[in-house]
Amino acid sequence: MSSRALVFDYDGVLAKFGSETPLPGIIRILEKLKGKYRILVASTRSTEFLVKQVPVADGYIGICGLEILVNGMLIYPLKALDKARSSLLDDLAGALKTSCLRVELKKNMMGWTMGLAISWRRCAGKPVDVISVEEKAVESGLYLFRYQRPFLEIYVAEASKARGVSLVRRLLGLSWVSYFGDSESDIEVFPEVEYPVFVRNEYNQHMSPGNVVEVRQDDLASFLERLI
Hints:
- This protein is an alpha/beta fold.
- Helix content is 25%, strand content 26%.
- It has two domains: 4-76 and 160-225, HAD superfamily/HAD-like (Rossmann fold, 3-Layer(aba) Sandwich); 78-155, Threonyl-tRNA Synthetase, Chain A, domain 2 (2-Layer Sandwich), CATH 3.30.980.
- It contains six helices and twelve strands.
- The longest helix has 12 residues, at 83-94.
- The protein is globular and about 50 Å long.
C-alpha cells in the first residue's frame, strides 16, 4: 500500500455547503487516485455520514477527530466516551427552539452524541437560546469551537482534526500527506503536512492562511485529475 495520502475535509471541499452529496464526478476521481495514494476524509461530520458519502476512502477521521475508523478499528479518546457528557449535549440541543437555527447532532457509530453544531446564519442576530446553550456548555466543561461566522460547535471532549490526522498517519505509516481544507478547524492541520491545500469557496473569503497551495472549489476536480 502507498505511504502517501490525500486527506479531505468534506463540507466546502468534497461537497458544496448546503449539499449532502459530493461534487459531481469527485468520487470517480478519488477512485482513480487510490492506486497512487491512500484516500482519507477528516471532517466535523459524523463518521457514519462520511462512510456513506465517500465509500471509497481508506479511513475516516470523524467528529473533528473524536472518532477514527481505520484498518477495521474504531478509535476514541477516553474522555469522548463519557455518557454523561453525551446526554448533556442531547439536553442542550433540545433547548434550541428558535426556528431559524440549523442544529446538527454528531453521533458516533455506537449511537452516542459526541458533538453539536449550531448555525444561526439565517437569523437576524445571535438568538438568546444559542447564548444560553453556549454559557451552559462552558459551565459544564464541554469543548467549544467558535468560528468567524455565525456557527458554533460543542463537543464532549477536546476535538482536533490535526491530532486525528497525526494518529492515522502513524497507524498507516504515511511518509507524505496532502491535506485539503477550507475552514478554521482545518488551519491547525496545514503546518503538520507536507502539502497543505486551502480550498477557496464562497464562505471562507475572510480567511487568508499562509504557506499553502490555494485552489477554488469549482476547480478541485481538475486539480485532482492532474494528480492521477
